[in-house]
Amino acid sequence: MHQEDKVLPALFRKMNNAEFHHQFELIASIEHMSTMKILHLINDLDRRKSYLELGYSSVLDYCVRKIGYSRSAAGRRIQAARCARRYPEVFGMLRAHELSFGAAALIESILTDDNKDSILSRVRGASHREVERVVSEYRLPVALRDRLQYVQIPLPQPRDLDQALVDRHCKRAVPEEYRDQIPAEEKVFVQFLADEEFLTLFEEVRDLLANSSFDSFADVMKLVLKEYRNRHSPAVRLARRAEKNGAKGPDSRRREWEDATKSRHIPDEVRDEVFVRDHGQCSFVAADGTRCQCTKGLQVDHIKPFANGGTHDPSNLRLLCGAHNRREAERTMGAHVMKQFWRTQ
Bigger pLDDT: 202 or 182? Predict the structure, then answer.
């Protein structure tokens, strides 16, 4: 335990009520001012994009992995910061405690030049629930959101553990003496919205599997996902080619292979090789060894640009996320050329 964690509780216990509340209000005021500064720092970080040089793919990635915020806490701060950047009067409301940081994050997605005066007047001094009600008027009605949650599913139990199971299902802490006695298997609760087309496709696939053991949503979805992976995963495609050909060879589906140096297109086999070599992850590594962990929207980048004579040899290729690919392009083509491709908030 940190020394401060021992000293402060003892110090607070010695205070009378007046001293205690003065200290509480003082620290809360400092916390509020610090959060205001954090919003300004986030906006300047968004402007600088210096997180890219440190091995992070976005402001959110930096706040989570480097600063240590949870994704939800980082997301709220980023939304509040961008809201206040677009409409500086929000900073005034936050400073005057007329709007909470969470409320600023909520209204960020619905504020426009046309409705901002109306919305800001309605949320000024409003409770969080009242702000949610205002926001709901400007959003399409949604019954639920996509989410994943790990859950422990208890297996059948002896009678003497019945009460422990009741406590578990009532979301109370399971008694210490029972924790190691309740076997359970870990599952993932998946929730998402789907349209009628999805349901029709699902039922059609389920009917095609009628003579198999696949009948639950999870069984059918797992089968479909595996089918897609086997068709599109670079690692699986590369292994399949090696097994079929016994050695690397041209991709017969691409005419450019015969003279690939004249085409900007990178042959599929080479793309797959680079993807597998870089483990399906952005390969940018910062000076301190921090590697970007982005695995979405990856792009194959020429280390020596194709326009400058760079080849499609795997040694001249690397996987980069979109943000780091644009950053590398800035270095070779100039920031003024690439500025139009950066997302503006």
Answer: 202
Instruction: Tell me the longest C-alpha to C-alpha distance in the chain.
Output: 85
pLDDT band (50, 70, 90) for residue 213: low
What are the backbone angles phi and psi of residue 254, rounded to the nearest 5°?
-115, 115
Which CATH number belongs to the domain containing residue 297 in this structure? 1.10.30
24 and 124 share one domain: yes
Residue 325 and residue 265 share a domain: yes
Q: Which of 101, 117, 138 is the last residue of a domain?
A: 138
Residue 225: how many CA atoms within 13 Å on its side-chain side?
6
Tokens standing for residue 61: 């990635």
Taking the C-alpha atoms of residue 199 and residue 147, their distance in angstroms, rounded to an integer, is: 19
In a domain, 243, yes or no: no
Place of tokens 């979805």: 221
Calculated CA dihedral for residues 167, 170, 171, 176, nearest 10 degrees: 0
Report the alpha-carbon distance of residue 118 to residue 82 in Å, rounded: 19
* pTM score of the predicted model: 0.71
* Number of independent structural domains in the chain: 3
Same domain membership, residue 102 and residue 11: yes
Q: What are the E-state strand segments in 255-328?
A: 299-302, 317-320
Give the mean model confidence (pLDDT) for residues 225-237.
90
> What's the rounded Cα separation, in Å, for the pair 141 and 22?
44
In a domain, 182, yes or no: yes
